Amino acid sequence: MPQTTSIGLLLAVILGIYFFTVSVYVLREYERGVVFRLGRLMPVKGPGFVLVLPIIDKLIKISLRVVTIEVPSQDAVTKDNVSLQVSAVVYFRVVNPSSSVTEIEDFRYATSQISQTTLRSVLGQSNLDEVLAKRDELNSTLEHIIDEQTEPWGIKVTHVEVKNLDLPETMQRAIARQAEAERERRAKIIHAAGEHQAAEKLADAAAIIRTEPMAMQLRFLQTMVEIATESKATVLCPIPLPMDMIKPFFDNFDRKEK
Predict the structure, then answer these.
(1) 80 closest CA partner among 31, 150, 130
(2) What is the C-alpha separation between 5 and 14, in angstroms, rounded?
(3) Residues 6+ apart with CB under 8 A from 60
(4) 143 vs 57, 77, 111, 155, 179, CA distance in Å?
(5) Cα dist. 139→107, 126, 145, 191 in Å?
(6) Which domains can be identified in the chain, with CATH numbers?
(7) With 133 labelled, which of 14, 63, 115, 124 sits at a CA distance of 20 to 30 A?
């Protein structure tokens, strides 16, 4: 009889430990517990110490931390019929644990699939120039569309970022030629603008020299000084005389001819 009592007490202790382990949960600050009691949804529990009824209750832990999923490289065709491969990264978190369990079987997988289809769809509605130049607007559009579709599941998409964008080699060469032509166009415009400004300054200088006859003589002497100081070569050229000094000789020559 004492042996039977000891066995019963041991079984009771073992059952007590078992029911205690399956009934007590300690949820971290970022965890919540979705409880089903006989199949019916109960209020969300946690964080901290949570006690559930064994066998009757079933608790599912849900993390509220931000989840990062990588969208695999997708083959897409832009609006202007350019094929490319693009991948992205999606950041989201659970804001409604009950909906994330009851409304969708696997919210991670579903969010990944929606991200892939949305990425191809948005790229198909954009031109290549918009995809390359307006990356922030593309990210905002993807975030808005994915968040709107996952909101019924209790999911909040916090950020979407296009990660890699691979173009065919022929398109890369075409873009390189376009960029080179654009740089050449800008260089020609800048050169033409410089020539135009130089011509304007020369015209102003000519107008000043025309009003001051001695300005040409002074400019000639200044040029000779610059050549003498900057060059070691010997320069032979006639020294121009002022017109006032040689004008009487021309007047006498004209009178003799008359």
Answers:
(1) 130
(2) 14
(3) 33, 34, 35, 36, 101
(4) 37, 20, 12, 12, 31
(5) 21, 12, 10, 39
(6) 9-62 (no CATH), 67-167 (3.30.479.30), 180-257 (no CATH)
(7) 115
- Measured CA distances, 160 to 75, 133, 163, 235 (Å): 18, 17, 9, 73
Cis before 2? omega within 30: no
DSSP-derived letter for residue 45 is B
- Angle ∠(230,234,239) on CA atoms, nearest 5: 95
Please list the pLDDT of the chain residue by residue as tens digits (258 residues): 566 777 777 777 777 777 777 788 889 999 999 999 988 999 999 888 888 888 888 999 999 999 999 998 888 888 888 888 889 999 999 999 999 999 999 999 999 999 999 998 898 888 888 888 888 899 999 999 999 999 999 999 999 999 888 877 777 677 778 778 888 888 889 988 888 888 888 788 777 777 776 776 777 777 777 766 765 666 555 555 555 556 666 666 666 555
Comparing CA positions, the residue from 71, 66, 93 lying closest to residue 139 is 71
Residue 236: strand, helix, or coil: coil
User: Any idea what the Cα angle at residue 167 is, between residues 164 and 172, rounded to 5°?
Assistant: 125
Write out the H or E segment, with its range, that includes residue 171: helix 169-211
